[in-house]
Write a structure and sequence with these properties.
Layout lengths: L2 H24 L7 H33 L32 E4 L2 E5 L6 E3 L7
Antiparallel strand pairs: 1-2, 2-3
Length: 125
């Protein structure tokens, strides 16, 4: 959380606290009608600061999430040729979209026979 947001939340808490006290004090025997107005203005500004801090934090988190790019490189076994990559069960032609990383291992999902299996790591020598 940024320092500006923390300061905004502290100021909002102070404004909300004193706003509620002014509204509450307006209904006491020594209270004045003008205190209700002061209290309402303080409460509205306090809620405005809370909303602004919340929206600013969400926008910053969204911007940070959008700016992160993740690249996943799959090291396929040595005997796999992507030109003739076929399903072990039905022999259907597979593409890179059919390979996913599950728990750190490459797993193939065949779109034709719905078979799912893990690629076996063969020695690369």
């Amino acid at each position: 959380m940024r320092a500006v947001s923390i300061i905004a939340y502290i100021a909002a808490a102070i404004l909300l606290f004193f706003g509620v006290l002014f509204i509450w004090g307006a209904f006491s025997p020594q209270g004045q009608v003008g205190w209700v107005f002061i209290g309402l203005v303080s409460v509205v500004i306090g809620f405005g600061l809370v909303a602004a801090g919340y929206l600013t934090g969400r926008k910053a988190a969204q911007t940070q999430a959008d700016s992160q790019n993740v690249t996943l490189k799959i090291d396929l076994p040595a005997d796999v040729s992507l030109d003739t990559f076929k399903c072990q069960s039905c022999g259907g032609t597979l593409t890179m979209e059919n390979i996913q990383m599950v728990a750190g291992a490459p797993v193939v999902s065949c779109p034709y026979c719905k078979t799912t299996y893990q690629l076996k790591e063969e020695p690369k020598w």
